[in-house]
Design goal:
Elements lengths: L4 H31 L21 E5 L5 E7 L2 E6 L2 E6 L5 E4 L10 E7 L4 E6 L3 E5 L5 E3 L20 E4 L5 E5 L2 E5 L5 E3 L8 E4 L5 E5 L2 E5 L5 E5 L8 E7 L5 E7 L2 E8 L2 E7 L5 E6 L4 E5 L2 E4 L14 E2 L1 E5 L9 E3 L8 E7 L2 E6 L4 E5 L7 E3 L12 E4 L5 E4 L5 E5 L2 E5 L4 E8 L8 E7 L6 E7 L2 E10 L5 E8 L5 E8 L5 E10 L4 E5 L19 E7 L2 E6 L2 E6 L2 E5 L10 E6 L5 E5 L2 E6 L2 E3 L10 E4 L5 E5 L2 E5 L4 E4 L10 E6 L5 E5 L2 E6 L1
Antiparallel strand pairs: 1-58, 2-3, 3-4, 4-5, 6-7, 7-8, 8-9, 10-11, 11-12, 12-13, 14-15, 15-16, 16-17, 18-19, 19-20, 20-21, 21-26, 22-23, 23-24, 24-27, 25-27, 28-29, 29-30, 30-31, 32-33, 33-34, 34-35, 36-37, 37-38, 38-39, 40-41, 41-42, 42-43, 44-45, 45-46, 46-47, 48-49, 49-50, 50-51, 52-53, ...
């Protein structure tokens, strides 16, 4: 579509002089009703009302692939997830990925098992069973089961597939149709256990133990089957985890009526226990000389000693007898002294190391005896190469997230997943409803490395290009901010990368999505002629806040106020303690705040004031609907209620104390970019 700069400039001026004023007159009326604020369309200078108490929930995201399985075969650790399987070299940290491109029949891997004797890894996917030499790179597929066995197809049975290496070189496969044995030559055999399998383990004598909703079944090498369930006085409910203890006892964890139970089978007899702790058990794991229980409260092991930590007597885990058996059959399990990562999914142990898989953070590697996680195994870091963090939430509650590194993510019901779109997404924005158009989510995309930008819109859950809209840059495009104006137009900070990697800033672009018109506003340099009607906007613009009949811009030259009459840059003469403004925001009451290396300041009339409690370096700022001011700092996130400052740091769930960016979304949640990923703070 052709580009009409003069028309675009005129539309920008009309927008500044008209649409903003109408919008804020409407907003002022809403605020008068909601908060009793006098006046209409005039930004208030009153600080937020003090809040006595601030309670928040914190959840972090580093890796969007949920861990479904961990197999340990030193020097390697294999981690199965929604995106395939990764082989980690535990000495060097090198990672080799196996996915659909490398030969897996499906991306999601639901189970893994190691045959240590033959140095072979068994891999269970939704579409078939594979195997791989521990140090090799060639995947081989196990033949599908014959139809007459009546095996439920693996496709669509996520969570029902369990694997365990068999002593004869084959593999035990637990499915919704029962337990089967398969060998590399393609032979499948039924085991005689037909209950849907929920957990699987093989003991040293070659017996295979299968958990189900009805209890435990064991098949010995001679083919005999014994069952331990309600009829045998061994009611542990649905079995979720099984491990063989160093003593040879089989330990199963189940659930009855929402209460967890332990079933311990020794010498053909079963006893039922309840855990001493009310914290939910995540799983159990065992080695030749140690036994581990992972709960929401932490890790507890038979052999656990943490340097420099003196434990209290109550810092342990015990089993209390309910039916049969001696008291404390596993002995007292002592705390490992390490807090469990958030959202754990499973646990594995080899030698003196414990590996904990999670839903959002990757896999934690913990050395017994050390007081903290020693290392993380992560497929990728969400924040790697991050630029401008942007979040846009739709009416359906789904939020689009762009860290500015080319990736696009979607948050739905608390689950963060990566969205596969062509090109690189540099920012997302929510455009308010205007005229006949409802509100919409828009993504700014760099489709070609040597070209400018185009736009995507989210419609019925899918992202599709917006025809006829392109934004030109002189090189590979960069976006320093994106904001939706009250009239429905899109404002963005532009730049491009030179051949040496230096980013050259190009002011702002204002896009009318409906007409495809784009107006470029920037200060000219080296005597170059400016486009007719272009506003004299500083080149380096990193944020925007729409207030009254104009817009405030955060720039490296100060706070720039853009109105229909032109551009006025506020600097030290107007009270700025630093003219390099990192971020700018508008509170629901109309107060304008800026973030600088000399602190956070607010506009009072035509002068900027920096409250004494906020005179320290601030890299980003946002305001929520309750009046709290959220500040990104090198010490964590600061929350200012108008009188006092409260702090959130790694001790309360942040991935790191040094916070570079934050965004307050339309639901009042605060998105924080820090360390290896993102954290959501929900007040």
């Amino acid at each position: 579509m052709g580009y009409n700069h003069r028309g675009a400039v005129q539309r920008t001026k009309n927008f500044i002089s008209g649409a903003l004023g109408a919008f804020y007159r409407l907003m002022a009326g809403v605020l008068v009703l909601a908060a009793g604020c006098p006046g209409a369309g005039v930004p208030t200078t009153t600080e937020p009302d003090p809040v006595r108490r601030l309670t928040v929930e914190v959840r972090s995201y580093v890796d969007t692939s949920t861990v479904h399985g961990i197999a340990l075969a030193p020097p390697f650790a294999f981690v199965a997830s929604d995106r395939g399987i990764d082989r980690w070299d535990l000495a060097s940290g090198a990672r080799v990925h196996f996915g659909v491109k490398e030969g897996l029949p499906a991306a999601r891997v639901v189970a893994v098992a190691v045959d240590h004797a033959r140095q072979r890894l068994w891999i269970g996917t939704e579409a078939g069973i594979m195997w791989l030499a521990i140090g090799g790179n060639e995947l081989s597929e196990l033949a599908q089961p014959p139809d007459d066995l009546g095996v439920t197809k693996l496709t669509g049975t996520l969570g029902d597939v369990r694997l365990a290496a068999a002593g004869d070189g084959g593999v035990w496969i637990g499915t919704a149709s029962g337990l089967f044995h398969a060998s590399i030559d393609g032979g499948w055999q039924p085991s005689g256990i037909t209950d849907p399998v929920t957990a699987l383990a093989v003991s040293d004598d070659g017996a295979v133990w299968a958990g189900s909703a009805g209890g435990i079944a064991v098949r010995t090498l001679d083919g005999k089957i014994a069952r331990f369930g309600t009829a045998q006085g061994c009611d542990a409910g649905r079995i979720d985890s099984i491990a063989i203890a160093p003593s040879g006892a089989t330990v199963a964890v189940g659930s009855v009526g929402g209460r967890q139970r332990f079933a311990i089978v020794t010498g053909g007899a079963c006893a039922i226990y309840r855990p001493s702790s009310r914290a939910r058990v995540i799983g159990v794991a065992a080695t030749k000389d140690n036994f581990l229980v992972a709960t929401k409260d932490g890790l507890f092991a038979k052999r656990a000693r943490v340097r420099g930590v003196r434990r209290l007597t109550r810092d342990g885990f015990r089993l209390l007898a309910i039916a049969g058996g001696a008291s404390d059959p596993l002995g007292r399990l002592r705390s490992v002294g390490v807090s469990l990562p958030a959202a754990p999914t499973m646990v594995a142990m080899y030698g003196s190391e414990v590996f904990v898989g999670t839903r959002d953070l990757g896999t934690a590697r913990i050395a017994l005896g050390e007081p903290r996680v020693s290392h993380w195994l992560r497929r990728r870091d969400i924040a790697a190469g991050a630029g401008h963090l942007s979040v846009a939430c739709g009416e359906d509650g789904v939020c689009a997230v762009a860290p500015g590194n080319g990736s696009l993510f979607s948050l739905t019901d608390g689950d963060l997943s990566e969205v596969d779109v062509p090109g690189e997404v540099l920012a997302v924005v929510r455009l308010e409803a205007a005229g006949d158009h409802p509100s919409r989510l828009v993504a700014i995309r760099r489709h070609e490395p040597d070209r400018g930008l185009d736009l995507l819109a989210r419609r019925t859950g899918q992202w599709a290009p917006i025809d006829g809209v392109t934004v030109d840059t002189e090189g590979p495009a960069r976006v320093s901010f994106a904001a939706g104006a009250p009239g429905g137009s899109l404002w963005m900070g532009l730049g491009y990368a030179t051949e040496t990697g230096y980013v050259r800033h190009q002011g702002v672009a204002v896009v009318d999505i409906d007409t495809g018109e784009v107006a470029y506003h920037r200060r000219t340099v080296d005597g170059a002629a400016a486009p007719r009607g272009a506003l004299d906007v500083p080149l380096d613009v990193v944020g925007a806040a729409f207030v009254g009949r104009g817009v405030w811009l955060a720039t490296s030259e100060g706070a720039a106020h853009v109105t229909g009459e032109g551009v006025q840059v506020y600097g030290e003469a107007e009270g700025l303690r630093s003219e390099i403004v990192h971020a700018i925001t508008r509170s629901p009451r109309g107060q304008v705040w800026i973030a600088t290396s000399a602190g956070a300041g607010k506009l009072e009339g035509s002068h900027w004031r920096f409250p004494r409690p906020l005179r320290w370096p601030v890299s980003d700022v946002g305001a929520d609907a309750t009046g709290h001011l959220w500040l990104a700092t090198a010490r964590g996130v600061a929350v200012f209620d108008g009188q006092r400052v409260r702090w959130l740091d790694h001790r309360l769930g942040l991935l790191a104390d040094r916070v570079s960016q934050l965004v307050v979304d339309r639901f009042g949640r605060v998105w924080v970019l820090a360390g290896d990923g993102m954290t959501i703070i929900a007040p």
